[in-house]
C-alpha cells in the first residue's frame, strides 16, 4: 500500500473546515486544472482526470469534526482511499491532513505516486486559501 500525505494548517475553526470537506460538491474547488467533467452531490463525485481515468467517488464515512473517508463507488484503476483527518488547534485554526492510500504495483507506483502527491499537496494548499 502506498501512503501519500499532505498536511496544512487552516485559519478557520474545525467545524467550518469539516462542513466544507464533508460536502463533495465543495471538492471541485480543491481540484487542479486537469480535472474535468465534474459532477457531484453531497455524498458522491464523478470526474475525469485528463489523460488518465474517469473516477467515481463516494463518502464512505464521516466522523463529525474529525475525519472524512472517501472511496471509489465504481471500479477504479487501482484500490484507493482518500481520507481527511482534522485536528482542532484551539485558536480557531485547524490542522487538516489529507491521506491518499493506494494499492499500486511497482509500475503503477512509478507512474502514479508523483501525480498523487501533487494532488494531495494541491488540495491542501487550496483548502488553506479557501
From TrEMBL:
SUPFAM superfamilies, per database record: Bet v1-like (SSF55961)
InterPro entries recorded: START-like_dom_sf
Protein name as annotated: SRPBCC family protein
Species: Hufsiella arboris
Source organism phylogeny: Bacteria, Pseudomonadati, Bacteroidota, Sphingobacteriia, Sphingobacteriales
